[in-house]
């Protein structure tokens, strides 16, 4: 179990204090990603040093770090799912209208409408009980999909993800 | 403040280390445990359990059941539509991205794309259908969902409902003023979408903060 640093490049202001304080040089990489092999478990020197809040600590494994997900009443979830469905229908309609349209301005407009609907649907599903990728809820859903008649071609992805959610990467037990 | 944090970290590290030390228990009585750090191979071969008198053979590693985060609802929603699954997984992909987990992000995206392909297509795609769906949401569904969420004091759900409702009003107004919006886009204005809540605005530039969810400008992107 290792708790390591991640860097949010959109917040990074290139003050480079993480480079000054990192004992192993894990923060000094060409692509801006932290070298997870070099990063020291729970060290957090870079997180404390960064003036922009661009560095965070995340756990490679879950149980001790993430609290259990909040309980969500089924009645609330059903209402959230219903709204998500309506947003997704609107996304589909906007996409179809986008396909049909020959007007570039209208295409741009519809692209925005479709994107907004997707984002709202995502938020509603997330608050409907699927916030944390490492949660048992997600794991149970993936297992369920694997047992249902899931298409052959995607089985591999599902298997890999389950291995990740159960194994060391997403690290759920 | 810093010293408290440092102390908390030390305590956490201590707990971590302690939990990795193996413990042994006599399986015959299930009462006697070896002292922490004590191993069966260190004991004399004629060792007998002080509680039940059984020998070394009965000593086994104590397996502590891991703490499991309870599955929220034993009734796993087996009726999720393909569209809902697609949105659920594209959001989890973002959740992985935020944690710097790029492999998992790609896998969740693959699943989302799959459900996107197979999700039910709308039989008739017309603007009036968008108005109709928005009308049903704003006049009925948001109210019902909010009532339910308030009854059980579900703050997360209320937060999502407040944001999506506000964005829905914005969207309805954009659709009503479609002709004007298209003309504005024609004069070089962009369609900006807040990547957090979905707020849409047609303008030269994105606002400094999203008026719905309050995130700073860099989270609001032109399509």
The CATH architecture of the largest domain in chain A is 2-Layer Sandwich
Indicate the overall shape of chain A: extended
pLDDT averaged over residues of chain B: 84
Strand content of chain B: 5-15%
Structural class of chain A: mainly alpha
Termini distance of chain A?
A: 11 Å
Average pLDDT of chain A works out at 83
Q: What is the overall shape of chain B?
A: elongated
- What's the domain count of chain A? 3
Tell me the helix content of chain A.
Answer: 40-55%
Largest interface: A-B, 88 and 95 residues
Protein name (chain B): Rubredoxin-like domain-containing protein
Pfam family, one (chain B): RUBY_RBDX
Domain Rubredoxin-like (chain B): 21-62, 189-223
Keywords (chain B): Metal-binding
Description:
The complex is a heterodimer of chains A (173) and B (223). Chain A has three domains: 3-59, Alpha-Beta Plaits (2-Layer Sandwich); 74-127; 136-163, no CATH class. Helices cover 51% and strands 6% of the residues of chain A. Chain A is mostly helical and 173 residues long. Chain A is built from six helices and two strands; from the N terminus they run E-H-H-E-H-H-H-H. In chain A, helix 3 packs antiparallel against helix 4 (104-127) and helix 5 (136-147) packs antiparallel against helix 6 (152-166). In chain A, strands 1-2 form a two-stranded antiparallel ribbon. In chain B, helix 2 runs antiparallel to helix 3 (102-118) and helix 4 runs antiparallel to helix 5. The radius of gyration of chain B is 29 Å and the shape is elongated. The two termini of chain B are 44 Å apart. The longest helix of chain B is centred in the middle third of the chain and has 25 residues, at 127-151. Chain B is mainly alpha-helical and 223 residues long. Chain B has helices at residues 2-20, 82-98, 102-118, 127-151, 155-176, 178-186; strands at residues 24-26, 59-61, 190-194, 200-203, 220-222. Chain B has four domains: 2-61, Rubrerythrin, domain 2, CATH 2.20.28; 82-121; 125-166; 177-223, Rubrerythrin, domain 2. In chain B, the strands form two sheets. Chain B has a three-stranded antiparallel β-sheet with strand order 4-3-5. In chain B, strands 1-2 form a two-stranded antiparallel sheet. Chain B contains six helices and five strands; from the N terminus they run αββαααααβββ. Chains A and B meet through helix 3, helix 4, helix 5 and helix 6 of A and helix 1, helix 2, helix 3, helix 4 and helix 5 of B. Chain B: This is Rubredoxin-like domain-containing protein. Chain B: Residues 21-62, 189-223 form the Rubredoxin-like domain. Chain B: Keywords: Metal-binding. Chain B: One of its GO terms (molecular function) is iron ion binding. Chain B: Pfam families: RUBY_RBDX. Chain A: Residues 30-60 form the 4Fe-4S ferredoxin-type domain.
């Amino acid at each position: 179990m290792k708790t390591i640093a991640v860097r949010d490049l959109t917040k990074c202001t290139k003050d480079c204090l993480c480079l000054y304080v990192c004992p192993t040089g894990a923060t000094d990489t060409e692509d801006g990603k932290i070298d997870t092999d070099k990063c020291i478990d729970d060290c957090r020197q870079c997180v404390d040093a960064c003036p922009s809040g661009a560095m965070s600590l995340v756990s490679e494994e879950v149980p001790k770090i993430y609290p259990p997900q909040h309980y969500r009443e089924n009645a609330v979830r059903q209402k959230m799912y219903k709204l998500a469905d309506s947003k997704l229908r609107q996304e589909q309609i906007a996409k179809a209208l986008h396909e049909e349209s020959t007007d570039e301005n209208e295409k741009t407009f519809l692209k925005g409408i479709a994107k907004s609907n997707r984002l709202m649907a995502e938020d509603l599903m997330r608050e409907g009980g699927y916030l944390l990728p490492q949660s048992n809820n997600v794991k149970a859903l993936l297992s369920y999909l694997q047992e249902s008649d899931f298409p052959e071609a995607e089985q591999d992805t599902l298997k890999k993800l389950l291995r990740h959610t159960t194994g060391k990467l997403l690290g759920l037990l | 403040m810093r010293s408290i944090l440092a102390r908390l970290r030390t305590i956490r590290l201590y707990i971590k280390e302690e939990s990795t030390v193996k413990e042994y228990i006599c399986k015959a009585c299930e009462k006697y445990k070896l002292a922490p750090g004590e191993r069966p191979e260190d004991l004399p071969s004629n060792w007998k359990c002080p509680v039940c008198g059984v020998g070394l053979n009965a000593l086994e590693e104590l397996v502590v059941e891991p703490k499991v985060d309870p599955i929220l609802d034993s009734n796993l929603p087996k009726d999720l539509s393909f569209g809902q699954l697609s949105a659920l997984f594209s959001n989890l992909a973002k959740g992985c991205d935020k944690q710097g987990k790029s492999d998992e992000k790609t896998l969740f995206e693959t699943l989302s794309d799959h459900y996107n392909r197979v999700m039910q297509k709308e039989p008739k795609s017309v603007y009036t259908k968008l108005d109709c769906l928005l009308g049903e949401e704003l006049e009925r569904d948001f109210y019902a969902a909010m009532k339910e969420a308030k009854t059980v004091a579900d703050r997360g759900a209320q937060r999502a409902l407040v944001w999506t409702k506000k964005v829905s009003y914005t969207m309805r107004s954009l659709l009503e003023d479609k002709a004007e919006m298209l003309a504005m886009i024609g004069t070089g204005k962009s369609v900006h979408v807040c990547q957090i809540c979905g707020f849409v605005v047609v303008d030269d530039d994105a606002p400094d903060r999203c008026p719905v969810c309050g995130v700073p400008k860099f989270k609001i992107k032109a399509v």
